[in-house]
Design goal:
Distance between the termini: 40 Å
Bound molecules: flavin-adenine dinucleotide
Number of helices: 11
Strand content: 25-35%
Oligomer: single chain
Largest sheet: 8 strands, mixed
Length: 402
């Protein structure tokens, strides 16, 4: 017998799982969300996630609907222009630089950038306001018995729950995915993303800059001023051994290398705070659903951090599930709903994975003929107006149909 019951059980209280709980809770569904690791909600604490997330417009709209945006807006930095620079020549200087300006397609911004630790803080606070949401930090998913009418979930503290739908939002090694017998296809690039924040004397003016040379892109994403100076977050993708070398450098040497690799985009860079290294893979679950189970976010798909796709795709998973749940509440978690979820999400996820994989491989290239091809390709894609505009709309509409 179950101790408790709910409409939806979410395994995983990362950014995606917490956001899913807020979205489902705001839609009037009863939700239990569990995570063995309580959220770390300030930048200075051990285990804080120092990445930032650029939310594209459809994701921002979903945060508005879930009552989250009002909490986040003041800390969100708008990204008005995406500047792509190829610096793949003999020296690290721009050879080709092109701006994709949101204003040219009538949008105020491409996206809004927010620190992940702050997202966790505000997401957890929002869950406290939602009477239908039961957040259990410090407790993990342990087992699942899926039946035709509901799933029986066992938690690490021995509690048992009956849920009509189980959402696996428990990360790239998802225990729910494993318990459902779903495998994954994983591509390893031998790359890591070194993540840190920098201040700089030159203002960023809302421009997000991606500099390509070899090993992967070096991306500067605007943040609010820090200590009275313009500030950006950096994602620097490099091959594994290079990441280890960069992580071990002293402050001054690291600052000098970061400035050089940025091709002078914002003048001298001064790293502030800690550095983190994140492994880069591309991964897709062999199925998005099993009986009474739907996988979302990194449990379903992982992409390299290029073009701000990862969490944005995850929020589209969540909004698709919410829309299907509300369209036919009596069918929550049934085969028909789960099939509809897979039909809507699978082609979109597969296409995004293939696109980001291609961009990553192009960015990793260091051989002169390949980098010359990349520079020419960038100019060609930008300089033909309809192609440029179509690409920008594709980027903005990463969450497609909303
Ligand atoms: C360097 C970098 C930069 C990025 N930048 C962007 C960006 O700008 N825009 C964007 O859209 N995306 C971005 N992404 C992707 C984004 O950060 C991820 O998609 C997102 O953080 C992953 O969220 P998640 O909740 O799926 O996984 P996770 O954060 O891994 O969360 C999974 C949770 O599941 C929990 N868990 C594990 N086991 C259990 C269990 N037994 N029971 C319950 N819970 C369990 C874990 O404790 C964890 O809290 C970036 C990624 C990287 C690496």
């Amino acid at each position: 017998m179950a101790d408790d019951s709910c409409d939806i059980f979410i395994s995983g209280g990362g950014v995606a799982g917490l956001a899913a709980a807020a979205v489902f809770g705001a839609a009037g569904l009863s939700v239990t969300v569990a995570d063995p690791a309580p959220p770390v909600t300030d930048a200075g604490s051990d285990g804080a996630d120092l990445r930032t997330t650029a939310f594209l417009r459809p994701a921002r709209d979903l945060l508005v609907e879930a009552g989250l945006w009002a909490r986040l807006e003041a800390d969100a930095t708008p990204l008005k222009v995406m500047r792509i620079v190829d610096a793949g020549g003999a020296r690290t200087v721009p050879r080709v630089s092109r701006d994709f300006d949101a204003a040219t397609i009538g949008e105020p911004a491409f996206g809004w950038n927010l620190p992940n630790w702050l997202l966790r803080r505000e997401l957890a606070a929002r869950l406290d306001e939602l009477p239908g949401v039961d957040f259990r930090p410090g407790v993990g998913f342990r087992g699942l018995l899926a039946r035709d009418d509901a799933a029986l979930v066992t938690l690490s503290d021995g509690a048992r729950l009956r849920a009509r739908l189980v959402v696996g939002a428990d990360g790239r090694d998802s225990p729910v995915r494993e318990a459902s017998g779903i495998g994954v296809r994983r591509v390893r690039y031998g790359q890591k993303a070194v993540v840190f924040a920098v201040t700089h004397s030159r203002p960023h003016d809302g421009v997000s800059t991606e500099v390509h040379r070899d090993g992967g892109p070096f991306t500067l994403v605007p943040l609010p001023d820090r200590d009275g100076l313009p500030c950006s977050s950096v994602v620097w993708m490099v091959r594994g051994p290079e990441a280890a070398r960069l992580m071990a450098l002293g402050e001054a040497a690291f600052a000098a290398e970061a400035t050089d690799r940025s091709a002078g985009a914002l003048g001298p860079l001064t790293p502030v705070g800690r550095r983190q290294a994140w492994p880069i893979v591309s991964q897709m679950a062999n199925a998005l659903t099993a009986r009474r189970v739907a996988l979302v976010a990194e449990a379903a798909h992982v992409v390299p951090p290029i073009g701000a796709q990862g969490l944005n795709m995850s929020l589209e998973d969540v909004s698709t599930l919410r829309d299907l749940a509300l369209a036919r509440p009596e069918g929550l978690g049934e085969r028909e709903m789960l099939d509809a979820y897979a039909r809507r999400r699978h082609p979109e996820i597969a296409a995004r994975l293939a696109g980001v994989d291609l961009l990553n491989r192009a960015s990793m290239a260091g051989a002169p003929p390949l980098t010359a091809l990349r520079a020419a390709g960038l100019a060609a894609l930008h300089d033909v107006r309809p192609v440029r505009q179509a690409l920008m709309r594709l980027g903005l509409g990463a969450l497609g149909r909303r």
